[in-house]
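yo, FAD-dependent oxidoreductase domain-containing protein 1 is done. seq:
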Amino acid sequence: MFCTSFPRPRCPQYSNPINVKISQFGIEFIRGFGEAMAPYFPGEATPSLGFRDHGYLYCVSPEGADAARARVEMQRSLGAHTVYLDQGALKDRFPWLNVEDLAGGSWGSKDEGWFDSMGLLNGFRRAARAEGVEYIDNAVTGLEVEDDRVTSVKLSTGEVVSCGTLVNAAGPRAQQVAAMTGLSIPVMPHKRYSFVFASETPVPGRMPNVIDLSGTFVRPEGELFLTGNTPLDDGPADFDDFAIRHDEFEDRIWPALWHRIPAFDALRVMQSWCGHYEYNMLDHNGIVGFHPQIRNFMFANGFSGHGLQQSPAVGRAVSELILYGAFQTLDLTPFRYERIAANEPFLEEAVI
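structure:
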């Protein structure tokens, strides 16, 4: 996995109602983060997540217009502030956008944007330590299973830690951890390349995160811009392969950017990196819950690129399962592990 100081996304524009609800809880959590963290920062400024409420703008093709309108209607029925803009309204709202090949776009006009991931991580870490959590900088190399429980965890240094409940939150390495107990889940690392660039011509106004028909996205990052896409060779990668392909920007991303936003005719890449999505190859949705046979082994895996924005709701759900044995607030039963074993996808279409 990779961490970056660049703000990460928060968006309720999903095709599945439960994912919309998860993101709505995330928005509420992010907005109240400073207040929630205040007890753990006595006499100090609480961490600011710098939420940029600019929204996401999904470009919509003529053949995709009906489905896009239906998604917007569903999202709005749940209280989201998504709006569908036809071609003319889209051009009026974002005059710098090339709309000639678009039917329109769906835009989150409120409570949608991106935030500082490291601020979230550091706040969680500070609060957890204050509550008695011990962080161990080590690697898990083995799990001891007796009867129907994981009893201990072996670390690379040879230490052994006894286990009450094991939560597999290993991101792209989730399958490696599952395999230590003889289990298997369809979660593998998929490479994603990110590029930060400068443009000679600025984009005026409050620019959203634009998701092009090609799958390329771009959003402002201060005076710069962050972009990425889904590579053509989007297959499982080696767990330690973080080599970046710079030609992905030259050959695919830049042409897509220039077509959609003509102001991007002269760009200069300032920074780039490669990270891994923990990609659930069954249905692009997370796996949350206990294994039915190894009863203290819990999954929190496979979020396929939207894990950070779903982490507040999923973390709450994991704690509810551990404390109460059932979901108490948002019912995440559709994410249960049993669908994996039965090969029954719970599909999410809005994955970039």
